[in-house]
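Objective 1b: paired records.
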Amino acid sequence: MAILCSLFVLFSIVAAEFQNVEFSKCADGTVEPQLVAQDPNPARIGKRFDLKISGNASEAITQGKFTISLKFQFFQVFSTEGDLCKILSCPVGPGPISATLGMDIPEAAPPLSYEFKVEFKDGDKELMCITTDLKLQYAANEK
């Protein structure tokens, strides 16, 4: 259901009011996620949504890819991938890292709760994997 999201990556951080959200690690890697925040929280249908991940890399990152997927219950409804160095400005680390991913939530997206998964890899090497809940709601002045 590719209509669910059209994804694009932020190359600069814009003024936003990020709110910390709970997350789970779905794999161990060389990046230890410390903070996951989103703006807005909850995400609004028909509006922009940003997710910021901050952590600590135990090794330098010089290349890789990121994968983002959304699941509703057991069904994957969206997935995309991109060049990790476009969101991390490689080379980076060892040390603190921060990445911001953004997407426009289409008007056609149903107001449900989804599992939002972000994975960073360098080939087969797992760098980081987190999941968080993404709840979509209509904007306050809609529906």
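Objective 1b, second protein:
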Amino acid sequence: MDVNGGELDGRGGELTTVGEADGVVYRLGRDVGPAAVAAVYRSVGWEHLARDPERLGVALRASTEVATAWEGGEVVGVARLLSDRVFHGLILGVAVRSDRQGRGIGTRLVQTLVDLNPEMHYHLWTRTHRYSFYGRLGFRRDDTAMERPAGALAASTRKVKGRGEG
């Protein structure tokens, strides 16, 4: 169930307001403009996610859910969820515009996503300097995860073929 009591149905065509605090409106929905999200990502130095609005738009629409924070009609924060909706969810792309940080916006965005299904096991990616922030939200460090960076398979294949094994 979502925070409004409705089913998690993969909706996307609209934004649903789920709360308001200190002049910031919190919304759920995948139909958020990629340019607005790119501006947030740029403000925190994530140019690699912001440089191609078309790809960012695909990522937003492919997300299970997107939580956004709005102030004065402008997106000031974003967090995305990829999930099977039952057992596991991955929270990623959590960012609050640099000039709006320290006001609880990131906390509210993450909590909005977790509240969609509090019984689910949530994972997230973050930098080590953010461990304490996410720790306060109930997350703990887990040494069991691995990652495969973009292009890693191609590089690995070239390496193996170069040794005559491929």
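The chain has one domain: 16-162. Residues 16-162 form a domain with the Aminopeptidase fold (CATH 3.40.630.30).
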